[in-house]
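Feature request, filed as a ticket because there's no other form

It would be nice if the structure record came with a short human-readable summary line next to the tokens. Right now we just get the raw output. Example of a typical job, pasted below so the devs can see what we mean:
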Amino acid sequence: MIREYARRLIWLVAGMLVSAVGITMMLQANIGLEPWSVLQQGMAQSMGITYGTASVIVGAAAIGAAMLCGESFGFGTIINIVLCAVFIDGLLALGWIPQMHGFVPGVLLLLGGLELLALGTWMYMKSALGAGPRDALMVALARKTGRSVGLCRAVVELFVILTGFALGGQIGWGTVIAALGLGSLFNLNFHLLGFRAAETHQENIAETLRRLRGGDNTQ
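Raw output as currently delivered:
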């Protein structure tokens, strides 16, 4: 049991790192951000905090809203909120990914970032230790309202973009590309990797604790 969870934790942490590299690339593309990054960048600029700190605040708020709608979350959800933010702040501080100052290199860096975000999401979802905070919110809203996840995502992301823009977040062609292409890119990657996200049960905290208590901890 311990070995199983150690393996799953490695997938989760590796997924966070890959996702963080992808998000940092999108930030440095400098042609407009995907919806949640617009909000987080706007919060960082208006509140004088780091992007990672803004990401933690938004992630915690998303989980809080999901819980109010009756959705549970796992240890992976909490790790997602904290660790991805730490990785992003670290990568920005190191300056290993340069900021682009042209449209074509910006688009190329953005597309690379989107692909890494899709791969990182597959990796941490494969661990099945809990959905990401924003994904949990979308599912919770869909269940609460009886509407499709796609519609709930579109409405929430429109609100997120407008709020982020009002706070000073960057929107542009990158925002359009991300909004239109990210879902299809996720579906393509999941299909090529043979991963069925909807059929993967994400453990909540109670389930994980129950399995650990009932399992053989000597393995």
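Something like this underneath would help us a lot:
The chain has a mean pLDDT of 89.
Residues 74 and 205 are 4 Å apart (CA to CA).
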